[in-house]
Amino acid sequence: MTKLNRRHILAGGAAALAGTAALSETASAEIGLKAVFPVAQATIPIVGLKEVFPVRRIYCIGRNYAAHAREMGSDPTREPPFFFQKPTDAIQNVAIGTVADHPYPPLTKNYHYEVELVAALKSGGSDISPEKALECVYGYALGLDMTRRDLQRAMGDQKKPWEIGKSFDNSAVIGPIHPVTKTGHFAKGAISLAVNGTVKQSSDLSNMIWSVAEQISKLSEACELKAGDIIYSGTPENVGPVVKGDVILCKLEGLPDMSIKIV
């Protein structure tokens, strides 16, 4: 057996056991491996650029405003931060100055809005200190963590994972990313949400229990963060339901408004 054939056999065996993602691009090309079909890469537009931001993972922090934690039945003074994820193809991009159609999802009769600041990372690592964490941020966006609340609560009551209430098509609504070089970092600023012109959520980013820097630091203790990760940083109090025909308007001081219509 030649050295080249032996290398191909070993590489092929590794691919069979661990998938082609475990091989480098060079090794995959050398033995002729390729995906059986293309899979779209989730991306987010970047203001002022033709390039787009590729999404690797979507993280969300739960109950990061004290008043919202209380309305969800939690005591924020004793609760450490906790996180959950959404699939990357849950992204729904909303362009500035538009009212995007947002489909009412199946299986729910209690569909809730949650307006949030979103941080987009250009780098990452493990065990990042809060003092270094903001160096990882590429930019910020305005987002909506849409939630099938009845499914989330039902699964929680049964002590089962409530992913079905949070992770579904179009559940990660987001405006374009604004590079931090243009906006600076967001430690404070008014954030609000209105439904059909009536304000429902209204708070300030300074009311977050865990800052963006602290969220990045805490997340990096659990898993290695990387470029392309985005973090939904939590929602203020007064989350509530919407129905078909409702128009949601989200505002965050320092960023353009974002709006969707439930269809």
TrEMBL record:
Q: Which SUPFAM superfamilies match?
A: FAH
Keywords attached to this Swiss-Prot or TrEMBL record, sorted alphabetically, are: Metal-binding, Signal
> Can you say what this protein is called?
Fumarylacetoacetase-like C-terminal domain-containing protein
Any one GO MF term held by the record is: metal ion binding
Q: Which residues form the signal peptide?
A: 1-29
The UniProt entry, under InterPro entries, shows: Fumarylacetoacetase-like_C, Fumarylacetoacetase_C_sf, TAT_signal
Give every Fumarylacetoacetase-like C-terminal domain span.
58-261
